Amino acid sequence: MLDRLTSMKIFIKVVELGSFAAASQHLTLSPQMVAKHIEALEHHLGARLLHRTTRRQSLTETGRLYCEQCRLVLQAAERADSLAANTLGTPRGTLSVSVPVTFGRTVLLPFVHNFQKRYPEIQVHLSLTDQLIHPTMDGHEAVIRIGELETDLTVVSRPLTAYRRVICAAQTYLEKHGFPEQPEDLMRHECLVYENSGGPVTTWHFSQGSVTRPVTVSGRIISNDSSVLHSAALAGDGILVGYKQALLPDIKNKRLVRLMPRWTVPDRPMHLLYNAGPVMTPKLRVFVTELQEAFQP
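That's the LysR family transcriptional regulator sequence above. Prediction below.
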C-alpha cells in the first residue's frame, strides 16, 4: 500500500510541473511509479484528479480542490515534524525568567547556578521584581509569582513550595521595647512595613490552629525592597515579617530573634507561570521540569 502523504507530494509536483515525465525526472522516480501514486489517490477518492493527454495533464475540478487541501495537509505535517524535532533538540538559547526579589536572591540564584552546570548552552536572564508580571504580556518565558492567582489566567500554572514567612527582630530592639506575645501587641511596636504596587502592607495576619487574626501595624520605615527592611531589622529599627529562607541564617546566628512562637504567619502560595504554546521549547521544558522537582509543594 502506497503512503498517502508521499502520493500527495507527487500529485502536487505533477500539477506544478505539468506532466508525469517532468515530475518523475524531478523526483528521480520512474514515470510508471508516478502514475501509480496518482492512480492510488484517485482510487481512494473514487474520482479523477487529472485530465490526461499524451503530452500534458490538467486538473479536474475535484483535482483542483484536492490539490489545495493537499498543500495544507503537507504544510501541517511539516509543521508537526518541526515542532516534534524542536522538543527533542538540545536545550539552548536565552531563557527570560521573572522572579520575586527575595526569593530570587536567596533561593533561585543557587538553583540557576546548578541548572547552568547541567545545561551550559542555556543563558538565564533573571529579572528580579516584586511587581505583578504576566508571562506573555511582559516578554518573559517563565514567571514565578507569589500570592493568589487570577481566576482568568490563560497561561499554564504549576504550584511550587509555599513562600513561608516568620516574624523577628534584633535583640537590641527587644531590649528597648520588649517582646510582643500576641498579635495585638504589635500595634504598640515599631514595625518595618513592606510596600507593594498597592501601597504599604499595614495589615499583618497571624494564625493559631484554626484561628486567624489580622492586626494593623505602623512604622517609620516603609520600603518596596525587602532587603532594606532586613537591614533595618538587623540595625534594631523594628519588627520584621519576612521570607523565612532569607532570615534563617541571621536567626541561627542570633542576629535576629523569632517572635510569638505560638503564632504563625500564614504561608503564601507560589506558582510558576509560563505560556507553553503548541509545544514547549527544550530550554523552557527542562527549566520547568527541574524547577518543579527542586521546589515541590
